[in-house]
Every structure is written in structure tokens, then in C-alpha cells.
Amino acid sequence: MTMHPEETRRRAKSPARTLIGRLIGSVVAASAVTIAVVGSVGSAANGQDISASMTIIAPAAAGGGWDGVARELQQAQKANGLVNNVQVVNMPGAGGTIALGNVSVLNGQPNNLLVGGTGLLAATIQFDSAATLADVTPLAVVVEEYDVIVVPADSPYETLDDLVTAWKEDPKALPWTGGGSFDQLVVTDLALAAGIDPLDTTYISSDGGGEAIQALLNGTAGAAAGGYPDNIDQIEAGRLRALALVAQEPISGIDIPTAAEQGFDVSLTNWRMLAAPAELSDSDVDALRQLILESVETPEWQDAISRYHWTERIIVDDELTTFLDDEETRIRALYKEMGL
């Protein structure tokens, strides 16, 4: 798949000050994340009682999807007295693998939760990162978000089949865009479902959903895959036309036909999960999982699901292990098709 311009790894921003110490500089080199840590994101100052203190780490800058999950979880826990002191630390860089690497050295410290998801799993593969999900303790998938295939409102393509037909005729002539690596995976998956070689596709990388929308509106790109929450306002305003929702089945409240309903078996979802450091006791793991399950039952979290257009999906225990293994296999296969 042709990428223009090439996606580059984001350098980590200034290290975040935490309750106990400070994480110092992170760099990406030789397709791996090298991490220097002084102190830690930290256990609670008065012990490791997770109801006393918790740090929720968003592996991206403020304002993105992972940050939204972290801050809504923080609000749910604070408002309902589930944790006395909850802070959110933003730790951006390399698709989330900077934060993953930092958490991977906090073994045995249960007062830390890392937000992750499809994009983080994909980044560990894309960047061949030193730290992977095997170096932390995945606890639960809590929500998922769906991509939508969109074109400008004045596009000649009225249906997904119209778009795919034109795409197949000359794959390089129809430039695609998206707001991140997950969106590129969706485009790759759609290409394969349509019988198009992903390497023949022109994909223009955009820095976030807003930039991808601008690329559509100014004619730089002819089609895009992007998160439904990022695109719904433009769809409702009549500036973009939604051709397909990328979901396993129709979603209540979203009046957009799925790609599968239209004959294209594409259903990769942008799920969000929570993980903790490795080497925790069974009692700590059980307590953290229970905290998450109580948090997502709160009115504050349920309100966030509505506001962010998330779909609740709870996956824990053995089912989570199987799910993550299957997703890794699937995403690795897509990257191979992309020539990465």
C-alpha cells in the first residue's frame, strides 16, 4: 500500500510528573522502544490499596480516544467513591508503545491502569516494539468504536458498491485517507474483501480524524475510513456521505448499512481495553478487574458511552486471552498484506 506522506513515529512529549516519581525520556530506535525510568508511575503513597490511589495512563495526548476513556473512567471512580485519589497521566508516542514500555517495568505495582486497544496492539506490530501486551496484565475490554466509510457529499459514489467498482478499475487513482493506523487497517481489510491488492492502493496518512475530513472536503482524498464519532457531525451536516458502517452487525441508533450487509466482510473494530503491570498477585488482579466492572456500571460511565457514541462490550478472563490472540493474528496478517 502506497503511503503519502509516510507515517512517522511520534516522539514522546515531556515526561509526566507522577505521585511518586518521574518517568524520564523515551526514545524509539531500531524499531523498538528503549525506556529509561526513574521512580515509577507509582503505587499509592500510603500503600498499594487500589481504593486509595490510582493512576490511569492514556498512551496519547489529551483529547484523543484513549484520553477520553481515561478521563471518563477517572470521573466515574471519583464520583462514586470507588477510588479516593485518581489521576490521569498522558504519555504519548509511537502509537502508544512508549506508555506500554513504561508500564511494562512497573511489575507488581497494582495502582496503575493503562488504556489501550486495537491501535496499541497494532503499534506493537507496526513498530516491532520491545514491549508487547505480554509484558502487562490485560484486564478487560470495555467498549468498542466503529469506523465508517465516507465520501464527500458531492461524490459520484452513492453506495459502497459504486465506490468499490471505481476503486477496482484503477486502484491508484482513488486516494484514500484516515485518521490513524487503525483506519489504514480498515482500508486494507476492505481492499482484500473487494479483491484489490492493498499494495496498489494510494493511502494518504492524516494526523487525526479532523485532518482526514479536511482531505476529503478539499479534494485531496476521494474516500476515507474514520471513526463514527469523528465523522457524525459532518455526515449530519450534509458535508459527507456515509456509505458503510464497519461493524459485525447493524447497530441500534446508527442508520448506516454495514459493509457486511453490502457484501464486504469487513468488521475490524476499534476496541478499548484496560491493562495493569505484570507480576501482580491474584488478589490484586481480581480487585482491579472488579474495580473496572464497577466503574463501567456507574451513571457517569453510561453517560460517556452515549456522548462518545461508544458501544459497550465487556470481555474478561479466558475470553479476553482468546480475543487478544485472535486480534493479533488478524492484524499481523493485514500488516503483511500492506508490505510492512
TrEMBL record:
InterPro entries from the UniProt entry: BUG, Bug_dom1
Keyword Transmembrane helix listed: yes
Keywords of the record: Membrane, Transmembrane, Transmembrane helix
Keyword Transmembrane found: yes
Transmembrane segment boundaries: 20-45
Gene3D superfamilies per record: Bordetella uptake gene, domain 1 (3.40.190.150), Periplasmic binding protein-like II (3.40.190.10)
A Pfam family the protein falls into: TctC
Family: Belongs to the UPF0065 (bug) family.
Protein name in UniProt: Tripartite tricarboxylate transporter substrate binding protein
Organism: Labedella endophytica
